[in-house]
From TrEMBL:
GO molecular function, one term: ATP binding
Protein name according to UniProt: ABC transporter ATP-binding protein
PROSITE patterns (alphabetical): ABC_TRANSPORTER_1, ABC_TRANSPORTER_2
Lineage: superkingdom: Bacteria
Source organism (scientific name): Halomonas heilongjiangensis
CDD domains noted in UniProt: ABC_Mj1267_LivG_branched (cd03219)
Length: 274
């Protein structure tokens, strides 16, 4: 059965939702990209976020991750109000996002890309550097070890010293995922992880998301247009349309819901139904 945001509390149990977005409004000039968008993401879920082009999904990610300040509304992470915090502070609280177009540092190796992810290193603090250089070295070594573990977990160790520019599109998506893991995230927002990824790597990406969810308890919110990926990976699936929450439910219920079909009206969903 599909639910509304207020009913969803029961679905997630008594626990506070990991992410709660309440009545977000975001304008770009005269265009209202988010129109009182409200939704909740349950702890430990792999939640899908779908909707037609322009529904406001990426804008919602940008507001949640601190890249845009909303005109109105609130964002809560694990019950704490994070609205308007800058991206690095939100990141430090365990909310990480990836981008539709990966943002790797092309002329650095894969390992260096991971080591760049900030973790509040003492080395970045001038006085700590002067007073305790040994601490800086220890932290760098620990950071490197963590990066190597992340690469091993994602089966990317063989690419550690490859320039990021030489990776395929799918490998860059895995690198994006790896970068989020450097921050020990609670919640990862993935923006179209399947776009431009070949079927083999897509399978790997999916398995890795499932393993991270199962073994590390990481919650995922995933924007995706590939309906096969959404249907096989995500539960629940939230649907947005015209800047607002439309409905949510298990993938099969969402797939059959008349409101969803109407929202996509002749778009890729109808095509996928074929
Ligand atoms: N930086 C921006 N400046 C102006 N308009 C923007 C900006 N970002 C998004 N928009 C507009 O806001 C609306 C919502 O866009 P958004 O990218 O959030 O939708 P989406 O659901 O992610 O779409 P898609 O599935 O195509 O990525 C669209 O009309 C878009 O053109």
């Amino acid at each position: 059965m599909a639910t509304t945001p207020s009913e969803m509390t029961d679905d997630v149990g008594e626990a506070t939702p990991l992410l709660e977005v309440s009545n977000l409004v975001m304008d770009f000039g005269g265009l209202r990209a988010l129109d009182a968008a409200t939704l909740k993401v349950g702890q430990g879920t792999i939640t899908g976020l779908i909707g037609p082009n322009g529904a406001g999904k990426t804008t919602l990610f940008n507001v949640v991750a601190g890249y845009h300040e909303p005109r109105a509304g609130r964002v809560y992470l694990d019950g704490e109000d994070i609205t308007g915090l800058p991206p690095h502070r939100i990141f430090a609280r365990g909310l990480c996002r990836t981008f539709q177009i990966p943002r790797e540092h092309a002329s650095m190796s894969v390992l260096e890309n991971l080591m760049l992810v900030p973790r509040g290193q003492a080395g970045e603090r001038f006085f700590a550097n002067l007073l305790r250089p040994g601490l800086v070295r220890e932290q760098e070594a620990a950071h490197r070890q963590h990066a190597e573990e992340v690469l091993a977990f994602l089966d990317l160790s063989h690419l550690a010293h490859e320039y990021a520019r030489n990776l395929s599109g799918g490998q860059k998506k895995l690198l994006e995922l790896a970068r989020t893991l450097m921050a020990d995230p609670k919640l990862v927002l993935l923006d179209e992880p399947g776009a431009g990824v070949n079927p083999t790597l897509m399978g790997r990406l999916k398995e890795n998301i499932e393993r991270l969810n199962r073994e590390r308890g990481i919650t995922f919110l995933i924007i995706e247009h590939d309906m096969d990926l959404v249907m096989s990976l995500c539960d629940p699936v939230i649907v947005m349309s015209e800047g607002r929450y439309l409905m949510e439910g298990p993938p099969e219920a969402v797939r059959r819901d008349a409101r969803v079909l109407e929202a996509y009206l002749g778009g890729q969903y109808a095509a996928a139904e074929g």
